[in-house]
Amino acid sequence: MIGDYLMLQYGGKRMIAKRKMFSVALMSILFFLLFVAGMNCRRVRADAPSFYVSGISKQSQTVQATANSFDVLAKPGQNISLSFRLTNATDRANEIRIRPTVAQTNASGGIDVSIVGRTLDSSLTHPFTKMYQGPRVITLAANEARTVVFYVQAPKQSFSGTVIGGLLFSSNDIPSVKTSGSKTFKNQINSALPIRVRSASPPNPTIAPNLDLGEPKIIVGTLNHPTVGIRLRNIEPAVLRQLKGVVDIYDKSSPTNSFRFEQAPIDMAPNSYFNMQVSWGTTSIAPGNYVATFRFQNGERTWKFSRTLIVSPHRAAELNQITAAPRQSRLLWWVFGAVLFLALSIAITVFVWHRGKHVGMKRHF
């Protein structure tokens, strides 16, 4: 019976020791994951907007307006009145800036009316910025709400297709400033109201999207990966939805040196461009004469383009040097984290082992 008791006691101690070791391992893994996550995390705190804006609903033969957007059907030269409600959400005066914008295709492949200061596509003949007639700055008293009227002036000549723009609202008095570590950020809160304008008597009632493709060039893309940059253009006043693309690139002198890239579906605004980025198939680039074929599809419509891409030895070496530096830096961080994880695991294991041994000796005596 004494032997059975000792075996049971010994087995219990082994089980306790295993549980302690398992707990230590879990703690070490958790610490390591928190360390890796903390390498790129920044504290972000969102602010409440200092104002609110919404469209005034209106339903007629020429205007379909909701709280979120306006749809205008205008004759040549016609002046259409619209209105929105602007509310100051603060207890002090608030100066609101209003900027008319042109719908563009953003970097994510979406139609965006909040982009300002960007070069417009050369195919655009009727930008919404020239149609807007209304205030550019409105000052609201504390907690004031006001209905504002503005006008959309249609082009004097009849036009076909669709013009899309918007009104971008921002506060000049109350920018949001937050500090993260040693850096200061300005978080300017904007609100946008999209506006679509169509002709009531278009010369061509059916306008279909059409694509044009620029010339490719090698650039440093996301995460410092070598990338082919090329501009894809929608050159007609028509919205293009769910455009898919496939790109095949191969070296003329070595066809096996090739890769394929599939572009996720994108939407394109009328008369706009999309700065397409084709991630290179490998982490380094070999010099050579490459052929790039582009195939785009939207429903039953397809477009095909072929372009030549020449990568000189000097350009290849330059890009490979630029893209290699961040990879080496990330590798050093991972090595440092692994060493820290190993050292921490050993330290905690030794500490628990010594503590367990000390407690066992005290119980024995």
Give the SSE map.
Blueprint: H1 2-40, E1 51-55, E2 58-59, E3 63-65, E4 70-74, E5 79-88, E6 94-102, E7 104-105, E8 111-112, E9 132-133, E10 137-140, E11 145-153, E12 162-171, E13 176-180, E14 183-187, E15 190-199, E16 211-213, E17 217-220, E18 226-234, E19 240-251, E20 254-268, E21 272-279, E22 288-298, E23 301-311, H2 313-364
Parallel strand pairs: 4-15
Antiparallel strand pairs: 1-5, 2-3, 3-4, 5-11, 6-10, 6-12, 7-8, 9-11, 12-15, 13-14, 16-18, 17-18, 18-21, 19-20, 19-22, 22-23
Helix pairs in contact: 1-2
Structure, explained:
It is a single chain. α1 (2-40) runs antiparallel to α2 (313-364). This protein has 365 residues and is of the alpha+beta class. The model is unreliable at 5-10, 39-44 and 325-332 (pLDDT under 50). The strands form six sheets. Strands 2-3-4-15-12-6-10 form a seven-stranded mixed β-sheet, with no helix packed on it. A four-stranded antiparallel β-sheet has the order 1-5-11-9, with no helix packed on it. A hairpin with a 4-residue loop joins β3 (63-65) and β4 (70-74). The chain starts with a helix and ends with a helix. It contains two helices and 23 strands.
